[in-house]
Amino acid sequence: MKSDLMLKKYSTTYVSGTVSEKEFRRIFGSKMLEIEDIITIDDKSIQFSDVISDDNNNGFQDFVYNSMEEIRNINLYNLKYDNSSIEQQSQTELDKVNNTKWLLNINAKKILQDYLFYKIKENRTFKCIYYEDLYGYDVNTFIRKYIDENVLNRYQFDSIKLYVKYINLLIESDIYSSIKLKYDPTFNRTININDFVIKNVNIGEINNILYLDNLEVYYNQTKKSTEYKFDYYFDLIFTKI
């Protein structure tokens, strides 16, 4: 048989799945990630393990846990504390002394992003994916980009549960401490019980969560600010669109 009539020889090469973090929906179905209908950011903990490495394989998870991986415990209390702040609103001196007006700023988008990342890591959704299979990202960076592209816009902000507990400065502290603690709200996870829930919370205008970097919560002290300080805490609720 002449050589030019011979069939061309082919080799088989391993090919990974898509290396893009963007998932596309199709009329006959898709492989979109299954997500929770309701997310409550409270004070629970999320535990997961992955590889902490100086090379590009940072964030790798094997099919099951192995000794290469480092166990990490994430507390949602810290997530909320790190992504929120409280400050006084612009007000008269009379308002400040009597019923101080406060503004609680919450980076709701960042809290939701991190929560989704920790849950994906907890469930080992992207186990056995190596950085070589990705477009130059380590595994953790790829997962965060996947969340931004496919998951974040499937949620909307639903509500906030705000807890406030007043502390009498004239009873609880000496004169020096009383002066120091005035106008100094404390973020306190121990007060998240129904007795301290604020029934009507005043929230600023809310945009789509995709563009929501800052959730503004307005609160006016109901007890005289020169005699009382308060501790506060909050839970966030998101729902699937």
Distance between the termini: 65 Å
**SSE order in H/E notation?**
EEEHEHEHHEHHEEEE
Cα gyration radius (Å): 25 Å
Number of spatially distinct domains: 1
- Provide the low-confidence segments as ranges: 26-30
Sheet-strand content, in percent, reads: 25-35%
Number of DSSP-assigned strands: 10
Structural write-up:
With 241 residues, this protein is an alpha+beta fold. The chain has one domain (38-240). It has helices at residues 76-82, 93-98, 108-122, 139-151, 169-172, 175-181, and strands at 38-41, 45-50, 70-75, 84-88, 101-106, 155-168, 186-187, 202-203, 215-220, 228-240. The strands form three sheets. Strands 1, 6, 7 and 10 form a four-stranded mixed beta sheet that branches. The protein is elongated, with a radius of gyration of 25 Å. The N and C termini lie far apart (65 Å). Mean pLDDT is 83; it is low at 26-30.
Q: What topology emerges from the helices and strands here?
A:
Layout: E1 38-41, E2 45-50, E3 70-75, H1 76-82, E4 84-88, H2 93-98, E5 101-106, H3 108-122, H4 139-151, E6 155-168, H5 169-172, H6 175-181, E7 186-187, E8 202-203, E9 215-220, E10 228-240
Parallel strand pairs: 7-10
Antiparallel strand pairs: 1-10, 2-3, 4-5, 5-9, 6-10, 8-9
Helix pairs in contact: 3-4
